[in-house]
Sequence to fold (453 residues):
Amino acid sequence: MLKGRSLLEPMDFTIGEFEEIFDLAEQIIAQPEKFAHVCNGKLLATLFYEPSTRTRFSFEAAMLRLGGQVIGFSEPGSSSASKGESIADTIRTVECYCDIAVIRHPKEGAPRVAAYNTSMPVINAGDGGHQHPTQTLTDLLTIRCERGSFSNMTVGLCGDLKFGRTVHSLIKALSRYDNVKFILISPKELRIPEYVRKEVLIKNKIEFKEVERMQDVLPELDVLYMTRVQRERFFNEEDYIRLKDSYILDAEKMKKAKKSMMILHPLPRVNEIAVDVDDDPRALYFKQAKYGMYVRMALIMKLLGVHI
Amino acid sequence: MDIDSIENGIVIDHITAGFGLAVIDHLDIDRSKNKIACIINASSKKYGKKDVVKIENVINVDMAALSLICPNATVSIIENGKLKSKTNLKLPEKVINVIKCKNPRCVTSVEINAPQVFHLTDEENREYRCEYCDDLIMFKREILA
Fold:
């Protein structure tokens, strides 16, 4: 039963509950018009303390396409946060007006503070460099629709794995499926955080390896999950120059990849995927963004407990 | 050196030598009202040296804080001059407002009224995980809240 629950990190829901959401998302994809009024009279609060285009738009579009309405702010300067109001007080106030809240915040764990101070469902839309569970729902729905299953695959995650919240959530979620191997491609300075390595990978005896260059492992991958590596994250210029090309995917490198390999990216992209890859049928990142809206529609319906 | 035995209260024995005063510091006991004895570097057959703390007329202490500072200690409750119970401490599974998260990106660095909650992840290395940001920390006395 998902009604009334919050989604703060992927492990809050079981695999079975994920499947419920994906099943509903697929029904919405098949016949969106049937769901156009299921959230009539419901109000979604979007509390964005940090900039966002895709996630905020997709949540707003999701709620509007379900017949509900949206209120909120897209930067803390236009809310009482600028006056120093705590997250706890903000959510208690928002609860008086809304049925469900989506929160993005630069501080890690902020959505948990919100959830602890309200009885309405809270959805984490990204908290600092920590977690981004609805991006994970998006990633998984894309894999399910385009590949069919989550088991027996080698997933390469490339780029900034230290601060990449989408990466942390995806590893956690995929760690529960059978025979999923990870190849973690990043400079040494940007490797996954200790809690992901110890608490998720090592504790669950999941096979993984850490490498510095994408080209060395491309032929092994079934899924390549790209993220952006920012120049300022490198500790020195020398390493940046040495490694920067290892984190840029282009048509030349794609020649080494399997014909069935999926390229995913949470977006926005800067230059880590060259535009000459966009027309490759394996490039699924724009399709992925559309799945993101459908899976958020399904999530909102489940947490509000509404049906057709 | 001898210290009188207590009639009612608590005896914390086998504290790692040098940590006795830290135990008193973190147990939030009113020093102006309670009789407290701290024996530093007492002889110990098992460890060579140990500290012992005796507190009269107090039996309710923060066991979670105590377990973190001195996980090998024993806690004896004395009533009417007799031993009522003796407990061997072990690291608590969950601690609230005992450890403070040091991750500057953690929400607890700005949301000052949020309780500091940690979960034990690795007993051998005394490692705890922050409930909010998942940061792992090896417990040291300096990080007490």
Notes: Strands of chain A lie at 43-48, 69-73, 100-105, 122-127, 153-158, 180-185, 208-211, 223-226, 262-264. Residues 162 and 193 of chain A are 5 Å apart (CA to CA). The mean pLDDT of chain A is 94.
